Amino acid sequence: MLKNNLKNFLWITPFVAFLLGYQLINFFQQTTELITPNIVGHNAYDALKNLSAQNLNVRIITEKTDSSLPDQIIISQKPYAGQTIKPNQTIFVVTSRKPDLTLAPDLIGKTSAEIKNLTQPDGLKVLSYTQNSAHKTGTCIAQNPVPNSPMHKRQVTVYLSAGQHQPVLMPNLVNLDLTQVQEFLQTNNLKLVVVNLDLNHKNSFTDTGDTANGGNYASGALNGDSNSNNNNNSSSYLITEQWPLAGTILKLDQLPEVRVKVVI
After folding, report:
1. DSSP track, the chain
2. Which domain holds residue 123?
3. pLDDT tens digit string along 236-264?
4. Is 3 a member of any domain?
5. Is the pTM of this model over 0.90?
């Protein structure tokens, strides 16, 4: 009888030893569970220092471009804040990254088609507005951001000239030097037509546009090698008559040209 009991005891001894060993191992290697801290919104470097002090690890799994946040800000984490974790466990995070800065292109003076050709390859969004201006209709007169400045958003706002619709008074050009008048008219996108008269020709100003009567038109600056009887520089020409007359009320966008008569 005793012999049978001894055999039964010896049979279960390995199982008892295993259970006791398992419990002893758990007792000596018992680990304390931790609560996952909230590190969203923290700088990645600061979070790494704080978690290292708590025997926790941090691993960046990806970076997300976000122009509204500084670089290396944690925007998500896993395990989430409040979950239980063990010492030396890794917390996986996603951090922010500033987009590469793009310089605004120079669009001043460009037409809508030219602006599109310049901005479309870079994927820039263009917002356009129009306003009255003496500049050529349809050309860019202002932009934001200004040319060659950093663009925090891939977007540029342009202001296009709608032309000059407000009536203005024609200034008095008589007795002014031709060069001065030419610069003034070019600034306002007006065409200058100069009538070069034969010195012996006495027709009135309104008749001189007829080349058959001796009048010749010169558009823009008066060159020394034109059909005039003189070879002097344009700065030596003085305006004696003009059309439209001084004081005339007109709209610049409806004025095809300004004609003047000059003498040396």
Report:
1. -HHHHHHHHHHHHHHHHHHHHHHHHHHHT----EEPP--TTSBHHHHHHHHHHTT-EEEEEEEEE-TTS-TTBEEEEESPTT-EE-TT-EEEEEEEEPPPPEEPP--TT-BHHHHHHHHGGGT-EEEEEEE--SSPTTBEEEEESPTTSEESSSEEEEEEE----S-EEPPP-TTSBHHHHHHHHHHTT--EEEEE--TT----GGGTT-GGGT-EEEESS--TTSSSS----GGG-EEEEEESPTT-EE-GGG---EEEEEE-
2. 102-161
3. 788 999 999 999 888 776 777 899 998 87
4. no
5. no
